[in-house]
Amino acid sequence: IPVDPFDLVIFGGTGDLAQRKILPGLFRRFVAGQMPAESRVIGAARTELDSAGYREMVVEAIREFGGDFTYTDKQLKDFLGRIEYTPIDALGDAGWADLQELMKGKGRTEAYYFSVSPALFGELAERLQQWGMADRDARIVVEKPFGRDLESAHALNATLATYFNEDQIYRIDHYLGKETVQNLMAVRFGNMLFEPLWNAQFIDHIQITVAETVGVGGRGEYYDKAGAMRDMVQNHLMQLLCLIAMEPPARFAPDAVRDEKLKVIRALDPVLPHHIVRGQYLAETGNEEKMPSYREAVGAPRSRTESFVALKTHISNWRWAGTPFYLRTGKRLSARSSEITVVFKETPHSIFGEDAGRHRNVLSIRLQPNEGITLGVTIKEPGPGGMRLIDVPLDMSFAEALGQDAEQVDAYERLIMDVMRGNQTLFMRGDEVEAAWAWTDPIIQGWEARNDVPKPYDSGSAGPDYANELMRRDGREWREVT
Ligand code: NAD
Known about the structure:
This protein is α/β, with parallel strands linked by helices.
């Protein structure tokens, strides 16, 4: 379904995110017919370039990061015809008059994507207002990180609120744009099968793992000031936790959904110090090419920043009291894998006797790679061996089930189109972000107060063994990171 024609200004339009995600994503929507041909994409950044130079950069970005999809030369040419560029300084007046000129002649949806350092978010909002571009119907898209603690997030919300209403602000968490995440809601609220069992009475525990194989790469300077708790847990893992744990909203509508998510965050228990493990990766030596340790990568030989976190928490409400939630994320782990695992309780009694084995249903929601949902069910082992039970997966792999018809849409593409539709459901509201920081802050402050040193772990492992211990103490285990 095409959206209405729009003008999208990308502040930071020459940056890494714009090149890897935003521009190729827009092109794919253009080719799919969703981005109307009258729309315009306007790059605005500090880089001195003209529109022709920017279009060359866009072509390169599409070639390098567009993925394998087919398009014609004419489609590319038409798309480039919709691209403009204007150099601009968020911290000064340079370029603003030109942008103002470009944005004259309204009638189209207007959106401004803040794909720049968070230090510039407030400046951009203020200048948009100064130069008359902060109309009531303009939209701003704000990248992560949204603050580094409750105080800074609150201040940023207050600054943005000076110039824009909450319904104009789209705070991106690209995890919410993933197909499987929306499918999680379809599965939960579109079936009679799951919701009656979706509580502490039937669910033993829930695990959320976001494992990466990459290290900090070129983001060392930023990352060392943030760490996994701020960079991943406060936003991405927290959002997944909300969707898995929230009460059914009355409608699939922005505030109905976000109200329910907020209640989950507010019901989270504080994390006890012995329920959380931080880790930091060591160098990888086995391979020919030596991969640096975390400390080498960030150039800080005594860094105490964590590249791994595993924790246990509870949600203190009627639905979840007694069901632990285990969250885990880290860099340089054995595999790239994001998965939510719902482990149901054992049956109360085995009619087949203890020899048959006792089994648990496990629902696993896989975000990457191989997006899909699998439900493990227990059946009889085929053959003459008597009543022995085995687990088999009921696989809801989307690619397989839906075949060629399943259109692959990247999270960023989907979210940008949602901005143009004016649909905020998959964006974080200001109070949600602040509530998540209010839960995260004491954890980080505790580490700082104790001068906590993260546990070292081998690159290519599943993290420090202490994380396994966290589970073992409870008689449980993590799903293997594969
Ligand atoms: P980048 O450093 O690659 O690009 C920064 C962009 O900002 C450039 O286009 C630069 O010209 C522009 N810029 C810098 N100072 C400016 C100023 N004073 N006035 C106008 N423009 C200015 O950064 P990036 O990796 O593209 O990240 C952009 C934002 O997206 C950041 O908030 C980052 O945290 C967030 N983000 C990035 C990624 C990623 O994968 N790169 C992922 C998630 C979030």
